[in-house]
Design a protein that fits this description.
The structure is a homotetramer of 373-residue chains. Chain A has 373 residues and is an alpha/beta fold. Helix content of chain A is 34%, strand content 26%. Chain A contains 10 helices and 17 strands. In chain A, a hairpin with a 5-residue loop joins strand 14 and strand 15. In chain A, helix 1 packs across helix 9, helix 4 runs parallel beside helix 5 and helix 5 runs antiparallel to helix 10. The radius of gyration of chain A is 21 Å and the shape is globular. The termini of chain A are far apart. The interface between A and B is large, with 45 and 45 residues. Strand 16 of chain A pairs antiparallel with strand 16 of chain C, so a sheet runs across the interface.
């Protein structure tokens, strides 16, 4: 089958991660329609050229509008900050391209809904990059829940803790700017906890929440004497109800010293529990209520076996994978869905659903009341 | 100095734990006024006698009213279910006895306040048994926070997870009865998380909360076909604000398979973090932001050294202690406070403050709004 | 049944631990013949009196020869340094007393054999205090192996690591004196690893070994300028063969910074593995080869359930026990064996077998060749 | 600078890992002379072609003798089984090529020495692929030891445990054949523990050892009724002495159920300890004797910071890397050394030194005596 020609818009952190996925998916997963890394696009031509060479793209470009209209492009991958997602994704959809978009889908629910409408109207494949769904340990968790191995789910306990904004002297950056980023820890990392909650437990129906900015003013980057107002949250906390009767707590912060990428969840069901932590992403902890009484205990499963999702394509058992592999798995499923004419999951509908929860959390924090989704 | 004559009211789980503390405090801590285990009191005379012999008390009794009035009693220890705490403690205070009372102080805020008024009016020593404050690892946590080693405190994250009510077929018992127990997981175990929050971080000023009963009807004990309504919560969750600007999440459940006594907290400050889990109660995890960049990491401190609180009285370094030792430490401080004519901490004022938070959580869950304490 | 009158010889670390066991065994285990703490014996009368009061003995004495001959004594408990075990235990046996002796049984194989001969000739009960056998997690390990749950055993990997002699400036003490202590890390702590090996895997048939003294000269205690020669090993390492075909490694040191009481073993069998560490003595890690392929993992079993050995006598599930509880379990089994007229395990025959391995290790280290036991 | 043209001999597990390294080293490390993946060579032309396409090589070839003589080849990478290393590497050296060779360097010490002589005579760059040296956590360990942060080193404790040969019904394969593989667990995985010992502690001067084959006969692959003799060890154990006075234990097995890739070491020095486990390769545990008494504890350092070796080239802090990244680091240092005209480490001299230890272990096991290296 023909390769899929990809245009990547953006070349920062996520641009690097996606580029790596396109490079690696072939050797390890042999998709039926391999990706062709056609063009990378950014605002500054010198930096685009540097990224093109380093990341392995065929061409560089600086005008995304032109790029998304090119006949020879099949898939547009949107890795820009959240405030430009809608415009680019919608233009790409209108041009009939498959669209792969970083999370959060947009900075507002309205934009997210417009994006979903656009891809559905255009009838193109669309996917949102919640890459943590495709960690083998998370896939295993999903499988156990789907199989009923945990029974009725009662509790979801999701925390995403980082520490990179802990120091009040750390300078202002775009992730602290509401205009660019939409929100702070909420959209940046709580959105992952919410996606995992929806993936593993089900739809969230209502929330009550709290947002906190510990450091409301920071030095400007490069100008230590200038002061800039932080317009987003440093931390977000919510109590949630799920449609299936489960209850949950979700917490995200950038102010937890020592927690580098502590995306952890624990799920308790009638028949067992599972726990996961991104900092030890090759492991899943599982407890079964129905094990013999003297042999009950959390199993630390090294999710690196041929019997586990995705991971057998990489190395022999016990040989761990890392952060970027999750993007390779995601891109693989995207490419296969395109080859099959399907829309993969999670897609823009999931992005909209996620945004609804984020919006409800903001509203709950403001009104100090529970909010229905 | 003269021994302190003790009367213990109640001989179940807590009665056993307190009896052990009186037996062990002498050999290991040599209090200036050693306890004399004078009389144990309960309702059923045959069971009292059995408890007396097993637990090592001099006399047995069945009428607590008589006991608390006895001239030869110095200290009344209240280990009955929560619905009788107020009556017994107030009578003891009026009789001029020092009073040691299990938690929660009472089943209602009003009762708790009456108890506090009574001990203050009587001018007697009083203490509430939040024994987890005197785990050496928790004492070390307190010391680090007091010393400023963590800097300004920002986050408290307390979970108390158990699993003994997970099975819907598990029969009804008094802890599921609002009349007897006051509340469910909330008063039973969340109250510990709240006490640790107050001890380590400071006063809680407002809360929003959620209470959940997953299994509203259970078989009657001994009569599997009879059905009894569960009138308390199986799980309690709250978002909290502290007076000092910190924020927190508190969650307690009896429905987390595999979590046996998972009383865990994590505290994040400007300069570091600490984490503790009762299931590994001899350890404290500590992270310091100001360690050299390449050497930062959570330290797992075995809190079994002579340099640590209390533990040097037991065994050499590396020789772990267990659950019941926390009661010995608590009783030791109580006895020393009595010897000194002081009121130890935590005392009935802490019990009232704790009850205020419990009450606010119930109100917040009912009204679905934040509640000020 | 009549109480068992106990005489304790020695009141240092082990004397305290044994005294505690006699105090606690009644309230928690209700042995049919409860111990009566009759007399404690040591060399210095003032210190004996202090110990008597603190530890709860009825009488004090300074002449062990008299004590072991007293008509009213049933059980002699030997807690002195190793160089006096033989003389005391043999005298006690000849006087018809049951004998409970700390490990190692003696400082030489010859003495150990004389002790065994004496108790067998006298027909008295005898036990050696390898208390770690009666850690509930270790009992569970034993049960799994006996049940065949691990299949044929192939590997034993025992390490006992401590760090209290790590500093070359730490002063000389009797445990560094070959005359008093027999050997260093070898007899003090490797002997525990050997006992656990024999208990869990079976008899050791041959060894090759290495002994190392890192700090051959130390300051005298209290006289920092005086220098004393260390006449024992700081560390001991051995490769071993078992009668059943398994192979093992055993290592003990007092020079491993950060390892406080790291008595760890791992056993690999055809069908599974187990791992234990004294620093987390309430846990056992177990792996089963025959679990479903996607669900294999080491289970961390909290060995605090009613379904586990001994522990149900203490507190509810999830309430951990500590170091000294292992002595209570040991004493309980000793008292029950005496009540039944049996010889418990491990007994002096185990002490002799252990000493044979210790002796073979010393010989192997000296000759630099494998030695048959 | 000109690219380095690479010829890869072998396309199995290691061929895949090395290919990945050549693909990834450019985007993440920008070596001054980037690798050009010129030709991959194997015996079967169809399989070579499949590997060529999948792994991203320009040409395929089936005659390694021709390949190593090609003018346009700069670097020959030897990924074949150990019995052909010598012939290929020597031919490549004679043809003036830089040589990169998988471990163990050869199946005999004699061959290894011939290889070293050949590369030295030819004056070409040479490297042996002990990739675990370039795990960031291992690099950090090295740095701490070199800086003296652990003080004088006393103990090395290396275990490499796997479980893939645990089942006696698992069929025979080339790694069980002495002719092909040289030895079993010894050369395959103990060689890694030995390399890490040499890297971190220093030269090994003498050993005593034990080799064990638990399953001496296995079914032939594909012919379950045929039986084949296993001619290598299933497990290897050794006690070792280092030139600097440290002592060590080394153990490797393929028979430890649940241990998938448990390449663990612990090093104890006068001033501290470090511990590492390949199954959690992004972490290093470090203990410092000179931390304040109440704050001593093993730190779990997430070795994912910019302050740590190599890892800053990948992703932000807390984003873990995996197994194959270690090859990328190794290849990077190889390419840079070639660019600089240097011989990198570890090289064929390290391969020879390693082989000397392996040989001494075999001799010690056979003679049952200590052997000098």
């Amino acid at each position: 089958m023909a390769p899929i020609n990809v245009a990547l818009i953006g070349y920062a952190f996520m641009g690097r991660a996606h580029s790596n996925a396109y490079r690696q998916v072939g050797p390890f997963f042999s998709p039926r329609r391999p990706p062709h890394m056609k063009v990378i696009c950014g605002r500054t031509s010198a930096e685009v050229e540097r990224a093109r060479v380093t990341l392995g793209w065929q061409e560089g470009a600086t005008d995304w509008r032109e790029v998304v209209r090119r006949k020879d492009i099949d898939l547009v991958d949107v890795c820009t900050p959240g405030d430009s997602h809608a415009e680019i994704a919608i233009a790409a959809a209108r041009a009939g391209k498959a669209v792969f978009c970083e999370k959060p889908l947009a900075n507002s629910l309205k934009d997210a809904e417009r994006m979903l409408a656009a891809v559905e109207k255009a009838g193109v494949a669309h996917m949102i990059c919640h890459n943590y769904r495709r960690i083998p340990a998370v896939m295993l968790a999903k499988q156990l829940i789907s199989d009923g191995a945990l029974g009725e789910i009662r509790h979801y306990r999701g925390t995403y803790l980082q520490d990179w904004m802990s120091d009040p002297a750390a300078p202002f950056n775009w992730r602290l700017d509401r205009e660019k980023a939409g929100s702070g820890a909420l959209g940046d990392i709580a959105s992952h906890s919410i996606d995992l909650a929806r993936f593993l437990v089900g739809e969230i129906t209502e929330v009550t929440a709290d947002l906190k900015t510990f450091v409301p003013v920071r030095p400007a980057a490069g100008k230590p004497r200038a002061r800039v107002n932080v317009t987003v949250d440093d931390a977000a906390m919510a109590l949630v109800h799920f449609a299936n009767g489960a209850v949950g707590t979700i917490e995200a912060t950038r102010m937890a010293p020592g927690r580098k990428n502590f995306n952890r969840f624990e799920i308790n069901g009638r028949l067992g529990s599972i726990a996961f932590n991104l900092e030890r992403m090759n492991e899943l902890e599982v407890y079964f209520e129905n094990d013999p009484p003297h042999l009950k205990g959390f199993r630390t499963i090294m999710v690196t076996e041929g019997a586990h999702p995705f991971v057998g394509r990489w190395w022999p058992p016990g040989h761990v994978i890392g952060y970027e592999h999750t993007f390779v798995h995601t891109v693989y499923d995207l490419l296969e869905a395109i080859a099959d004419g399907n829309v993969p999951e999670p897609n823009f509908a999931d992005g909209v659903a996620n945004q609804r929860v984020l919006t409800a959390i903001e509203r709950a924090a403001r009104t100090r009341r529970w909010q229905r989704i």
